[in-house]
Amino acid sequence: MNSRHDSAASAPGRTLSRAVLRQGGARCAALCAVSTAATAAGLLLPALLGHTLDLLLAGAPVARWVGGCAGVVLLLALLDGCASVLGGVCDAQATAWLRGRLTGHVLALGPRAEARFGAGDLVARLIGNAAQAGTAPGALAALLAALAGPVGGVVALGLIDPWLAAVLLAGAPVLALLLRAFARDTSACVADYQRVQGRIAGALAEAVGGFRTIRAAGAEDRETARILAPLPELSRAGHRMWRVQGRAAARAVTVAPLLNLGVLAVAGLLLARHRLSVGEVLAASRYAVLATGVGVLVGQLAVLGRARAATGRLAEVLAEPAPGHGTGGLPPGNGRLELRAVGALRGGRTVLDAVDLTVPGGTTLAVVGRSGAGKSLLAQIAGRLADPDAGEVLLDGVRLRDLAHGELRDAVAYAFERPALPGTTIEDTIAFGRTAATPDAVRAAARRAHADDFVRRLPDGYATRTADAPRSGGESQRLGLARAFAHGGRLLILDDALSSLDTVTEHRITETLLAADAGRTRLLIAHRATTAARADRVAWLDAGRVRAVGTHRELWREAEYRAVFAGDAAADAGVGDEAGTEARS
Ligand SMILES: Nc1ncnc2c1ncn2[C@@H]1O[C@H](COP(=O)(O)OP(=O)(O)OP(=O)(O)O)[C@@H](O)[C@H]1O
Asked: How high is the pLDDT of residue 577?
């Protein structure tokens, strides 16, 4: 129970709550002022009604007073309307701000965000929890304004007769304790409810990502059961929420009428002793209702409790430290890459161990090794998609972590085995980057990646919506390659980005890609012997260590090196020295 509560009220949660309030300061203040004005108008009404009743009973003219009462009722309606609109604006803007911060942070965290929270849970936090957390400023402003009701009610009772206020104040501590317990219990069980929702969302996202496997295995029913397994827990958390709310309402229903009754009894006594008029008794009865009106407070506290728990869940994500960037720039150079004693741990295991590699500027290094040798992780670290746990990576003599974010991303281009293809149209997808590539650069890059032909055959060519464009795995890879080519940079890293291409296309692309380009360094993660043979040098990675560096021709002499390519069609066909010769001829 405590840990649940802690997450909702953690230090990062409180800091984030304060930041949300600060950013919506002016709007929240306006909402608070309008809501307080509405409460004040509500407080004025009983006094006006009471006085009008007294005048009626005395046979005096009351037209002006009746008009005044009607005016206050109208004003109340107007202020309530304004408060609703302002409340909606406050919620929407706070939610938008939170979503902006969270999205930016999740993208800055990169793969760590998914590894720590899971994609589905992150979506649940970004969509559901951000909307709930966004209601906090509005709910707080409304709560402060709602507090003016009971406070004003007590003051008004005191003005009518101090005894009336005394009766109410005697019961006030009970009401205060009741509200405090309600706020605490609500936050705790709502946090639980939201956490279970996040788990269901996470399981659903996994299933959507793997629906082909699930269908092929005929395991739809088992998956449905797995996704919905936390439902009983969700139901328990939901029931606890209702019990907390029900208990608070029941206690309020018992305490508030008793206090009302007490005020009315004293008012009746004072009327009998001619210390109060009939109108004042009427006003006192209405003020007693206002002063004990904890219903509105309970409602606002419930909203705040939900918002507080949701803010805690957003703060958990924001507390995950994102990699920082320096402010440095790169000297002129052609992308000399150095990995110095690079080590990396994953899942508590050493995946890269003391890797020392130098790729001279303008040359191509192929990284080969058995599955799981650490090639992809090395590719990530080489362009700072991930940081090493030990050692340094330098580009043209500058540590990657010292480079400004823009400088780093402009200098390094990536293409992947299964590229994500963001952007609305194919043109956007290829142009996608910090600065969009020009239409000419997009087409030139598509030609280099051998994507131009199939793009032109699409219904609207480059203007075809990416989501509607039918694509094979190899065509997707070519779009990913085109995106990398369109953005230049002095270091190009291809992480198995040619693996789905047929051998002819792969051969053509590597020919253009590896043609002497003194201005750019290339790092290729390769599985095919033919690709390795075309690189200037090959780094052979074995269980996270560099086993050897040399030309493919030199390394091919070792049987264990040849075994890396066992099963590769090219290797089967006897590609070795021949492949090296062919590539260079
Ligand atoms: N986040 C992670 N948590 C735990 N282990 C990880 C994580 N990321 C990678 N690994 C492990 O690190 C090792 C190296 O992974 P990597 O993807 O770099 O291998 P690879 O050489 O590219 O393999 P392949 O050729 O099959 O793509 C693997 O054993 C992998 O299971």
From this structure: 41
Containing H/E element for 460?
none
Please state, as a whole number, how many other Cβ atoms lie within 10 Å of the Cβ of residue 356: 14
Measured between alpha carbons, how far is 40 from 34 in angstroms, rounded to an integer?
Answer: 10
Domain locations in the chain as residue ranges: 2-319, 337-584
Alpha helices per DSSP H over 111-230: 111-117, 119-124, 130-133, 136-160, 162-209, 211-216, 220-227
**Ligand 1 binding pocket includes 385 (Cβ within 6 Å):** no
Q: Are strands 545-550 and 364-369 parallel, antiparallel or unpaired?
A: unpaired
| Closest residue to atom 17 of ligand 1, CA basis | 376
- What is the C-alpha separation between 215 and 220, in angstroms, rounded? 6
Question: Rounded distance, CA 1 to CA 296, Å?
Answer: 27
Q: Which atom of ligand 1 is nearest to the CA of 496?
A: 27
Whole-number Å distance between alpha carbons of 206 and 219: 14
Give CA–CA dist 359/522, Å, rounded: 8
2-319, what's its fold? ABC transporter transmembrane region fold (1.20.1560)
Query: Looking at domain 337-584, does it have CATH number 1.20.140.10?
Result: no
Range ranked top by mean pLDDT from 26-30, 82-86, 376-380: 376-380
Query: Of 466, 470, 469, which Cα lies nearest the Cα of 428?
Result: 466
| Widest CA span in the chain | 118
Q: Classify the complex by whether its ipTM is higher than 0.90, answering yes or no.
A: yes
- The β-bridge partners of 357 are 339
How far does residue 206's CA lie from ligand 1's centre (Å)?
A: 19
DSSP string, 41-102: HHHHHHHHHHHHHHHHHTT---HHHHHHHHHHHHHHHHHHHHHHHHHHHHHHHHHHHHHHHH
Residue with tokens 């957390």: 133
Mean pLDDT of 476-490: 90
Given a cut of 50, is residue 351 above it in pLDDT?
A: yes
Measured distance CA(526)–CA(449) in Å, rounded: 17
Q: Tell me which H or E stretch contains 380.
A: helix 375-382
How far apart (Å, rounded) are the C-alpha atoms in residues 241 and 560?
Answer: 63
Between the alpha carbon of residue 361 and those of residues 336, 337, 377, 397, 564, the distances in Å are 4, 7, 21, 11, 27
Q: Are 259 and 228 in contact, with CB atoms under 8 Å apart?
A: no
Task: Please say whether the beta carbons of 186 and 246 come within 8 A.
Answer: no
Does ligand 1 lie within 6 Å of residue 115's CB atom?
yes
Handedness of CA 325, 328, 332, 333 (dihedral sign): negative
Atom of ligand 1 nearest to the CA of 541: 21
* Cβ 371 under 6 angstroms from ligand 1: yes
